[in-house]
Amino acid sequence: MTNFFTFVSLYSYMSDNPRIGRILQATLKVALLVQVLSLAGCAMAPAYTSEDVVLAAGQGQLEQLFDQVEAELAQAKPGSDKALALDTVKNDVARRLAEPHQATIDALVSDSRTGTLSMAQVTELEAEVATVKQWLPYENTELRDEVAAARQQTEVELKAVNQELDALSPEQLGERNALLLQVAALTGGKDGEAQREQVEQEVESAYVQGVAAVEAKQMSKAEGFLQQVSAVDPDYKDVVLQQELVAEERRRAPEWSGRTVRDGPAAEPDPGSSAAREVVRPAPSAADERSDAKPAVRRPARSSGSRRARPRKGQLPLPGLDV
To answer: Please, which residues bridge with residue 255 across strands?
Structure first.
């Protein structure tokens, strides 16, 4: 600006001195034109450059830059060069802001096409779509439909698993824990993780009790606990080996009182009990009865004639009777 007033003063001086003015007139005109073009170039320079956007991205200030550009764009004349330049910068900043969220959306949508998302993932997907829409406000109907389909699929599978749970009896602990793991997977997030940890603790507890029962030769008890474990995870630790030990013990279990011992070796009866006092003798065979039988002693039959009757007191003996 100082140079501009200097040139104006020189122009006035040349007007007072025509001879010098003719010499410097052409030079002055060229200088004035350069100055005007320089000022015009400064006025047309963009307010923000691509370097400004990259710098803001590196400093984590893209959102602040977006707000600033949007505010200036609102004051610019629509359709003007300034408005067009600001709009270009705004779109660049918005695209950079949306990129990480769009990457998450693409990954989740890809997973939903090959399987079922957890409810936590569906919620995350919906939130990411809303965030991208904040920076790039356009309606993606295909994406919207895929998000809705992912939520519906998860809700249907959760309902089906819960119905299976309701149909189980309280005694079916293994099957119940297996279904609870499915519920945890479909729930996802912190809630699903808490459900999964609870089931894993119950499975570990059943395994420990089952192994202890095997060592104590309590095979029915061991079998019940080990079945709870295998219903959830057939390959859990050495549950297969423990079940084989139970089966082997059952095969060689001793018998007592006509019953197969299933829960440990046969216990001897208490000496003071009725079982100890009661002696069960084997039934004798027919041959034993013949060999052990004593011969019967036969007494000679007494004839009725040899038997003599004694007369009553005061009665004389009858004739013909041998007294």
So the answer is: 260
